[in-house]
Write a structure and sequence with these properties.
Largest sheet: 6 strands, antiparallel
Helix content: 25-40%
Strand content: 15-25%
Number of strands: 19
Shape: globular
Structural class: alpha+beta
Oligomer: single chain
């Protein structure tokens, strides 16, 4: 289950291959890398990016600017949200991205950023506190293209996606100019070939020396993709400068959770300072949790069943407060931890437990439920639907507990009862 939440990001390239329209939309939790971290990864693979360094205070930023040896600087607030350039800080300072040619002007800019909350269209209402800024070389872009590598089931492995129409919403390009989208599968056993890299660079509109340089960058991006167990690397724009350089100006990366054991350094970069504290707590107990905006907490085993449970709650007029998959190997303690987690959310007014016991023992769930109810002194309405392994013993445990637990025989009635409990 974990791989779904980290590696299936909602980035543009993935959307070119699949579209979903569920009744209930589930937020996606990804391995969060700041912009400077992605650039550092590319730099380590000799992929061309702007010169840059990271500062945590104004004097440090000024010192970086004085020694970066570039013509112009771009100062970028480092938060995990887009739209920074049009954002506004809580002190009234406008824009999380600024340009200057004078090192001394960097200090006041950074002073207005670090320690202040930046509000953009993609941040929470109150914004996100900026703790670091990136001081980078500002480059003119003569031409923008789009390039991505991703794992795709339709190709049974990696596929390259490119377009000469970069620097814009690639989904719009796919709709309005589908002939401008180029795709090619890569044999994961042999890797990307010189011919494939050159053909893609040519399709992106590179010519002459820039074609050779773009092809070389494409090959290095594939090397990065494989080496870090990425599921997606998206470069937009993948551009060229007036002085003839081919540069990766911005990158978005997704990684495979199943490879965390051999990518400890990469996963160690995960910036959790902007993550939901509940998600961090859930990960400590091997629970797959995503907070949402509703008031009916869901405790389910299995990702598919969890999503179906949220959908049917919506169908009956309710709003799920979370996605929570306890997993097939859950213990009584795991159930207790799950209850503590969902009840810590003050917007939760009812709880729906929906378990289909295939691997998991329903009696284990029932003992965990009764233990949790007693120990956390649960006062919220609780609806429980159990089916599968040892279900009769589980139902008896709930009945004999003397606790005010509402039982349901199927998912439809369980959802109806959970919604009704709010009235």
């Amino acid at each position: 289950m974990a791989v779904m939440w980290r590696s299936l990001g909602g980035f543009a390239a993935t959307k070119l291959f699949r579209a979903q329209t569920p009744v209930c939309s589930v937020p996606v939790r990804c391995l969060n890398l700041q912009e400077y971290q992605s650039k550092k990864l590319m730099q380590d693979f000799n992929i061309t990016v702007q010169k840059f360094k990271v500062a945590e205070n104004a004097p440090q930023a000024v010192d970086i600017a004085k020694n970066l040896n570039v013509h112009e600087f771009v100062i970028k607030a480092q938060i995990l949200a887009g739209g920074r350039g049009k954002g506004v800080f809580d002190n009234g300072y406008k824009g999380g991205v600024h340009l200057t040619k004078i090192p001394e002007e960097v200090g006041p800019m950074v002073k207005n950023m670090i320690g202040h909350k930046l509000v953009t269209k993609q941040t929470p209402k109150d914004g996100v506190t900026v703790k670091k800024v990136m001081v980078a070389e500002a480059l003119d872009i003569e031409r923008e293209t789009y390039f991505a590598i991703l794992m795709d089931r339709a190709y049974n492995g990696p596929v390259m996606v490119g377009s000469p129409m970069g620097g814009m919403d690639i989904e719009e390009v796919a709709v309005n100019n589908p002939e401008a989208i180029f795709k090619e599968g890569i044999d994961i056993m042999t890797g990307i070939t010189d011919t494939q890299a050159s053909d893609m660079a040519r399709n992106l509109g590179f010519v002459g020396d820039k074609l050779q340089e773009a092809a070389a960058q494409i090959k290095r991006l594939y090397e990065l993709f494989i080496a870090v167990d990425a599921t997606q690397v998206e470069i937009n724009p993948f551009g060229e400068t007036p002085d003839g350089r081919v540069v990766c100006f911005d990158a978005k990366m997704n990684f495979d959770d199943n490879a965390e054991f051999r990518q400890k350094e990469i996963f160690g970069l995960d910036d959790m300072s902007e993550s939901d504290p509940r998600e961090i707590e859930a990960s400590k107990h091997n629970l797959n949790y995503i907070g949402m905006d509703g008031n009916i907490a869901c405790l389910v085993n299995g990702a598919g069943l969890a999503m179906a449970t949220m959908d049917i709650i919506k169908l009956h007029g309710g709003n799920p407060a979370n996605f929570l998959d306890v997993g097939g190997g859950v213990t009584e303690q795991g159930v207790y931890n799950a209850f503590k987690l969902v009840t810590s959310d003050k917007q939760v007014k009812s709880i729906l437990v929906n378990i289909f016991g295939g691997i998991v023992n329903c009696a284990t769930i029932a003992n965990g439920i009764t233990n949790a109810c007693r120990n956390i002194h649960l006062t919220l309405p609780l609806v429980v639907r159990l089916e599968g392994t040892n279900v009769e013993a589980a139902k008896k445990i709930l009945e004999d507990s003397g606790l005010p637990i509402t039982s349901a025989t199927d998912l439809d009635s369980a959802a109806q009862k959970a919604v009704a409990s709010l009235r």
